[in-house]
């Protein structure tokens, strides 16, 4: 059983300085040392503010940090105490993290002012049994380093044998201080229609921190590690799609760009919250941070977490209006990030140059968040602007972008024009969902600049933790990109059509027989918003259990119209309805979310029915596909949202309450969240 957010997060360590300073005697002994450390920290304060934000550390925080550090040194000078205990506690914490199973209870976050855009964080259960079954600790040797205890999650599509060969492998790469569970919603979504591989980089999440060599944590070394793991799990001739977050984007681009270790098998890249370049100020701040003693940086991190859910540590990564569950999860992730690993990766970090971005030959999706303070939406826009055809003036140069290495701060270069034309999705507008997919093999091998599709979307009301702040919208955007621009087989709808069985096979007939025939009238949870709908399964002309036109007319006397949205001819005779029931056929295809035009047609049909002269407001409309869950739920929800003022969350929950378990297909649910996400910004596709 998966742990609930409360169970998972109730053991967070305290962030008060009382844990570090045990006795007044220790403070007195440490007093002279405190003054020295205070001076040292104060001198580094400006650089650290550049790394941790302008709110940084004030004089009070500097004094506390120095006092904590002085107490630590005093404990060591006394032959026992604080520094030893600090090391033991860190060792214990690292051991627990390394042995911990991937049991984070995932879900989606909601904010207090806009909860309609998101589900509860506990609404999605990331099966612990699934993780336990498909997680392993492996040893990896690269040309330059050996790594022990690397945690990976690998799951092969359970029905791969029934689908076209060489279904792409989707690889997840987390950011600096991140871990696999941050991708929980995307992983849970994608395992239904792709092979999935996720990696905890060394010292992160459940991976061991055994290799202490600083050179083992440079971007180049980590790319070698990822390439070794991917090649270990990639089948012969199998393409790879990489989904990276933050620093994971730098690894992804370095791997798939011209000359990259995975260029030969790359099929697409999804870059979530990528960093365009590191400013000179940021690089200097990072340099200052990695030069601090580890214990001192630990003290600063602990101070940064003061305030718990409302601390700078949390608010730096998630939207300030995110709910408590999201903030607790972020606090947990922050605390599980190991200081020595963070420092090594930061020192060895190298961001891809503009040229390296432009030299990738595969479809690229750039995703950002409006409230991201770490890798801002402007950063995403800058990268997107590099691909604007108007900015190409001949060949590109190695100096056209900065690598942003902490150890090599280059002078600022000229920036290209940033294209900021965006399309608001407030009215539910969206690009067509049934476009022809583009295979990786069809993309020309241009030797000068990127030739694949480049898309950019900015998700509203989410921060750097957009992965778990707004996962439904994120999943919808990623799913749409993969199916339309990478490979059409990477679509749950497409695969369900390929695996489709006769709906009236014995097992499917038994399934149909056991489900609810007709739902109660669909309304909001508080009863204030009432719809004209009942949802139902299709009828059978001679059904012995009474779900046939004749018996239906006698039992459901408040139904005046039937809307049949199934694609096939009905399995009943509409002419045998009694009681003045009018039958309407509105054919749609199963397994695939209805298009915008189909939704518009459905809403127009319902409007025309309700506008019929003399129609009683108590006269209802019954809607069905085959089982009455996915297409039926989707169409009804769109009407609730567009005509009756329901939020996405309210509509989904209202349908689920009336017809449990509600909409079953995750790609239908994600499509609703994406399509009706107010404030979602889409830039022109290059």
Automatic annotation (TrEMBL):
Cellular component, GO, one term: membrane
Which residue spans traverse the membrane?
none
Please state every residue range assigned to the domain named Tyrosine specific protein phosphatases. Answer: 600-660
Q: This protein is called what?
A: Similar to Abhydrolase domain-containing protein C57A10.08c acc. no. P87056
- Comp. bias regions, Polar residues: 108-117
According to its UniProt entry, this protein's organism is Pyronema omphalodes (strain CBS 100304) (Pyronema confluens)
Task: Please give the Pfam families that the UniProt record associates with this protein.
Answer: Abhydrolase_6 (PF12697), DSPc (PF00782)
GO BP, sorted A to Z = acylglycerol catabolic process
User: Keywords on this record?
Assistant: Hydrolase
Classification lineage: Eukaryota, Fungi, Dikarya, Ascomycota, Pezizomycotina
Top-rank taxon of the source lineage equals: Eukaryota
Disordered: where is this region?
93-117, 422-441
InterPro entries, sorted? AB_hydrolase_1, AB_hydrolase_fold, AB_hydrolase_sf, Dual-sp_phosphatase_cat-dom, Prot-tyrosine_phosphatase-like, Tyr_Pase_dom
Gene Ontology MF annotations? monoacylglycerol lipase activity
UniProt key word Hydrolase: yes
């Amino acid at each position: 059983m998966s742990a609930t957010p409360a169970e998972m997060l109730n053991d967070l360590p305290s962030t008060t300085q009382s844990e570090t300073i045990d006795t007044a005697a220790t403070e007195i002994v440490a007093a002279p040392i405190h003054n020295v450390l205070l001076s040292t920290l104060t001198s580094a304060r400006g650089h650290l503010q550049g790394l941790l934000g302008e709110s940084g550390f004030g004089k009070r925080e500097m004094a506390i940090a120095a006092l904590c550090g002085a107490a630590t040194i005093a404990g060591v000078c006394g032959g026992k105490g604080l520094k030893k205990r600090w090391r033991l506690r860190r060792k214990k914490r690292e051991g627990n993290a390394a042995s911990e199973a991937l049991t984070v209870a995932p879900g989606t976050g909601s904010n207090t002012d806009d909860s309609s855009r998101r589900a509860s964080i506990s609404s999605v259960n990331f099966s612990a049994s699934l993780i336990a079954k498909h997680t392993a600790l492996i040893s990896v040797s690269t040309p330059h380093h050996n790594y022990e205890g690397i945690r990976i999650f690998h799951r092969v599509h359970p029905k791969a044998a029934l689908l076209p060969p060489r279904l792409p492998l989707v690889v997840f790469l987390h950011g600096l201080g991140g871990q696999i569970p941050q991708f929980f919603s995307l992983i849970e979504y994608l395992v239904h229609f792709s092979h999935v591989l996720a990696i905890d980089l060394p010292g992160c999440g459940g991976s061991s921190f055994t290799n202490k060599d600083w050179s083992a944590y440079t971007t180049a070394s980590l790319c070698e590690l990822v390439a070794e793991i991917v090649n270990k799990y990639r089948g012969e001739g199998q393409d790879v799609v990489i989904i990276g977050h933050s620093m994971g984007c730098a690894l992804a681009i370095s791997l798939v760009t011209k000359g990259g270790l995975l260029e030969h098998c790359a099929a697409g890249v999804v870059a979530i919250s990528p960093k365009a370049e590191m400013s000179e100020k940021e690089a200097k701040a990072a340099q200052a941070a990695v030069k601090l003693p580890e214990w001192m940086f630990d003290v600063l991190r602990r101070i940064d977490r003061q305030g718990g859910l409302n601390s700078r540590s949390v608010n730096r990564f998630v939207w300030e209006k995110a709910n408590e569950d999201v903030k607790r999860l972020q606090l947990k992730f922050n605390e599980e990030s190991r200081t020595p690993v963070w420092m090594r990766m930061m020192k060895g970090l190298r961001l891809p140059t503009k040229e390296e971005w432009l030299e990738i030959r595969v479809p690229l999706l750039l995703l950002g968040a409006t409230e991201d303070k770490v890798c801002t939406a402007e950063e995403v826009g800058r990268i997107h602007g590099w691909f604007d055809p108007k900015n190409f003036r001949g060949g590109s140069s190695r100096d056209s972008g900065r690598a942003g290495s902490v150890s090599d701060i280059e002078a600022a270069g000229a920036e290209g024009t940033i294209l900021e034309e965006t399309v608001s999705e407030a009215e539910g507008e969206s690009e067509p969902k049934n476009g022809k997919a583009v295979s990786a093999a069809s993309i020309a091998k241009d030797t000068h600049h990127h030739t694949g599709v480049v898309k950019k979307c900015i998700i509203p009301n989410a921060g750097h933790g957009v992965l778990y702040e707004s996962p439904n919208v994120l999943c919808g955007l990623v799913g749409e990109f993969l199916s339309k621009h990478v490979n059409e087989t990477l679509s749950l709808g497409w695969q369900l059509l390929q695996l489709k069985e006769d709906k009236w096979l014995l097992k499917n007939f038994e399934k149909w027989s056991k489900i609810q025939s007709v739902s109660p009238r669909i309304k909001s949870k508080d009863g204030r918003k009432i719809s004209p709908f009942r949802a139902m399964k299709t009828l059978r002309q001679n059904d012995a259990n009474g779900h046939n036109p004749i018996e239906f007319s006698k039992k459901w006397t408040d139904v005046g119209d039937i809307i049949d949205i199934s694609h096939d001819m009905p399995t009943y005779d509409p002419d045998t309805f009694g009681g003045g029931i009018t039958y309407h056929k509105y054919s749609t295809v199963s397994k695939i979310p209805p298009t915008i035009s189909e939704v518009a047609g459905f809403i127009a049909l319902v409007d025309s029915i309700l506008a019929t002269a003399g129609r009683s407001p108590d006269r209802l409309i019954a809607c069905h596909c085959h089982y009455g869950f996915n297409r039926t739920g989707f169409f009804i929800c769109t009407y609730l949202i567009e005509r009756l003022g329901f939020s996405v969350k309210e509509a989904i929950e209202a349908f689920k309450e009336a017809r449990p378990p509600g909409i079953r297909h995750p790609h239908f649910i994600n499509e609703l969240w994406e399509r009706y996400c107010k404030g979602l910004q889409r830039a022109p596709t290059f």
